[in-house]
Fold this protein.
Amino acid sequence: MKRTLKLIIICITSFILASCESKQVIDTPVPTKPITEQPNETPPDFKLFENSFGFSSLIITDRSMTTDGYVMIHDEVEFISALLDSNTKIIEIKNDLNMGSKEVLEKLTVAGMNLEQVRSVYRPHSRQPLMHPILKETGVGVVRIVLRNDLMIFSKNGHQIKHTSFLIDGSTNIVIRNLHFSELWEWDEATTGNYDRNDWDYFTVEKSNGIWFDHLTFEQAYDGIIDVKEEGRNLTLSWSKLIFRPNPFIEAQIDYLEENVELYPYYQSFKELGISREDMLLYTSFQKKGFNIGNSTDGEGFEPITFTFHHLEIYNLMDRMPRIRKGDVHVYHITLDNTEIHDLRIKHNNDLRFSNQGIVTTEDGAVLMENSRFILVNTPIRNHQDSRTDTRYTGKYKVINSELILANRTYFGSSSDHNSLWIHSNPNELIPFTFRNYQVLPYTYHLQDIYYLNETFEIYPTGHQKIDDFDWLKINENP
């Protein structure tokens, strides 16, 4: 009876809010109207975390009844061995893992194994580090999840995985939950700050269907966070934290460069401008590239890409939130806070190279963003790439009920509003918004007023964590 009454109250409240607030009206087709709720003072119900509420929910299945193929691993060799076994369905990580190529080789040797024996699931990265003193000792690896179905990798305590990227290729129904990824970055002397040499993304996805990335923490990566290539579909990144600020790993790189500045002309050029060590530490901590969805100009097979981003806290991402070609992206309940990028740019505008932009949609790609907040993002939206005038290289976007906080004003509204600030900065035309793959979004999700977004993140934290009595294997397929 109480549950029924609560649902009635929520529905009535949603109707009243929709009637009274014109900006709630959505003239683009969307799924069954999302429920607008407000956090209450009752203890948090973490059952909210049991469903991905995004494109991946169309594919991802429950793991709570799985017993066969459940493996608990405590070190790097056990992790690789679990991946080698095609019967493995769930890998629970019990300790931090250091997956650099030199680290793994050393541990395999002790176990009487070699890299050739495990190359189907693990290889040294083709681009080994040049600059970072720690990575030159550890090497960089690639974990390969190739032609796998129904695999889940998670930690109950949010353990850390360092010095490796992941390739997910030709796979279906893959879940990556409650992990912390770090130490996959170095200073880019080779391409003078374009970060084009190493190709270190935390995840590369291609020819795969149904990937749920959930409750992850990401620190800096040399290239990007998630790179989606052809035929990557039904992906979701949820309840995650991307925090790009100074840390001991970045500091170790700066200390090395400061001590050997005469060997590195590009870094030296900044020192000759009088930029302090502290400002260089802050500058290099910013993440240059975020999410490359459809990874190359005029690429093939990007049309079926579908990706949902929701409940993300992001600090100091310079670009690509996301960058999309040809496919469809849904973004809701994210905060992109580029305050430190903005402030450092004011201080060193003529000395340091800065990007500070959010959505980049091209080649008929579509981004729908709802109930989100951009803070001091100088270029919130671009809808075209390069300097080409051909409309084939223009993308589509629609922003609904979102807040843009600028240095001199705050704007709340939608891209369809008269005199909206949610507009693209480049001169190319605005294309009417439609998704390519669906007339309406094919899943249910819940929207809150962004006024409550900070409170939601306090009650339901993003990123890796430990939640007592929560079953990470329980996945509600029918919310």
Q: What stands out?
A: Residues 1-33 have pLDDT under 50 and may be disordered.
